[in-house]
Design brief:
The chain is about 65% helix and about 0% strand. The protein has 19 helices and 2 strands.
Length: about 475
């Protein structure tokens, strides 16, 4: 007997999510076509949500509606873990407003591509291949695709554990200083999240200046800022390999080594330049001077806590601060800047060129040409943003170039150190700095990921011709 032909059945419809079905389809299309666009969408949505929350009367201490430019600036500064402020965090915002800022710091500290991956997971209830590539790039390719979902969970748990540990130490110290229980807990939690995420927000009106000689406050803040600046790929690498140097990946080695060099060199130069400055640390003892130098070197690279008035520093120290802020921290970290691995790759390329080597080699590994192109792109893009931002801020504020450049680099590098120009700027200046914070947090990371994830296959090459360089 002839076989019965198979009956055709339509493909089962995807499970509906009610009003979220359309949003799910949009997210799926973006995840499939452009990870960079999905990351930008995720960050934009987060900033808008926190802007609306901070605009509510309940967020302000006086119960008034916060103007849009101030609410947007604060929300962007928190989500981009910058720390620049145009109103006093302790005076202007209510407890609800400060809680919203703290939540924005925690969410923003996870990073743009991690947020995009979580957005895909929440809306679509799954991580497809493209979404896993996004998340893998967010973790600096430190995982296999099958482990991405688990590692996203580990990233969040690791953040909570580190921040919780810092909060316990800081809470105990605030209690010993005479604060009541709930106030000590709130300050401990706030500072722990702010330091680990390199945000630099402070719930005290005078910042951490009153604790400039208190190592029980300064050391946890420094540890949190330094660990946060290393990045999740480094933290996960250390979690897997421990302190065995031979087991570390090249990314872990370069990040830790360059970060340590920047902290050491920054401490020496900052202390040397400010040693006899009576407006900052000139009148202090040797021990306090050394503490200030190390603390400033760590915080300058992204976190933004400060013990001295930035306007009272020497001009050379301000220039050093500009350079350290522009350098920033590790890739896929809570720090900003162009990232230390970018500097390492470019420096190694210069050394290779000086030696006449055709390959860029370090620690028994060859760095691919594609990584060098990404590093150059990130540096040029960052320098261009700083140049354009400085031009606009100079035209808007009519302030001296040193103040403008300091504020612009701090915004782009999401550092948070300020010369006071942010609060003095008109709304147009605040919008420019807001754009710089978003671009600094999102732009270079998105550019790097776009170049790394999306690569065109070319079937032909044009003849080579070398232009004259230098």
């Amino acid at each position: 007997m002839p076989e019965t032909p198979p009956t055709w059945h339509p493909a089962p419809a995807r499970e509906g999510l009610g009003p979220l079905t359309g949003l799910r389809d949009v997210v799926d299309r973006l995840a499939a076509s452009s990870p960079a666009r999905l990351a930008m969408l995720a960050f934009a949505v987060v900033i808008v949500v926190f802007t609306l929350l901070l605009s509510l009367p309940v967020s302000a201490a006086d119960g008034a509606v916060t103007p849009l430019h101030e609410a947007l600036f604060t929300a962007a500064s928190a989500v981009c873990v910058t720390g620049l402020t145009v109103v006093s965090t302790a005076v202007h915002w209510s407890f609800f407003g400060q809680f919203v800022i703290l939540l924005a710091i925690f969410v923003g500290g996870l990073g743009t591509l991690t947020i995009a991956s979580l957005l895909t997971l929440m809306v679509s209830r799954r991580l497809g291949l493209r979404s896993k590539l996004i998340a893998q790039e967010a973790l600096n390719n430190s995982s296999r695709l099958g482990e991405v979902g688990e590692l996203l969970r580990i990233v969040i748990i690791t953040s909570v554990v580190i921040e919780g540990s810092l909060a316990v130490v800081l809470t105990g110290r605030f209690l010993s200083l005479g604060e009541d229980w709930w106030q000590a807990v709130w300050h401990g939690v706030f500072y722990s999240i702010s330091s680990f995420n390199n945000a630099g927000f402070t719930p005290h009106s005078d910042g951490i200046v009153p604790y400039e000689e208190d190592l029980w406050i300064l050391v946890p803040l420094s540890v949190g800022a330094f660990v946060g600046s290393l990045g999740f790929p480094v933290i996960l690498g250390l979690r897997q390999s421990g302190l065995r140097w031979s087991k570390w990946t090249l990314h872990v080695k370069l990040t830790i080594q360059v970060s340590a060099i920047l902290v050491l060199v920054g401490s020496v130069l900052w202390g040397w330049m400010e040693w006899d400055n009576p407006r900052t640390i000139g009148a202090m003892g040797v021990g306090d001077k050394l503490i200030h130098a190390v603390f400033a070197s760590i915080m300058t690279r992204s976190c933004g806590f400060n013990l001295v008035d930035q306007n009272q520093m020497e001009g050379t120290t301000q220039l050093l601060t500009d350079a350290l802020m522009f350098a920033g921290g590790g890739s896929a970290s809570t720090a900003g800047g162009i990232k230390v691995t970018t500097i390492a790759v470019l420096f190694l390329a210069i050394v290779a060129e000086g030696r006449g080597d055709s390959d860029v080699k370090v620690y028994g590994r060859t760095i691919p040409q594609s990584a060098l192109r990404v590093a150059i792109s990130v540096i040029v893009a960052g320098a261009t943003l700083v140049l354009v931002g400085s031009f606009l801020m100079s035209a808007i504020t009519q302030q001296s170039l040193d103040r403008v450049l300091f504020e612009v680099i701090s915004a782009f590098a999401t550092c948070g150190l300020s010369s006071g120009l942010s609060a003095e700027s008109p709304p147009a200046g605040m919008y420019v700095l807001t754009g710089l914070m978003v671009a600094g947090r999102l732009g270079t990371i998105t550019l790097a990921s776009a170049l790394a994830v999306r690569q065109r296959i070319q079937l032909y090459h044009y003849p080579e011709e070398r232009p004259i360089i230098g």
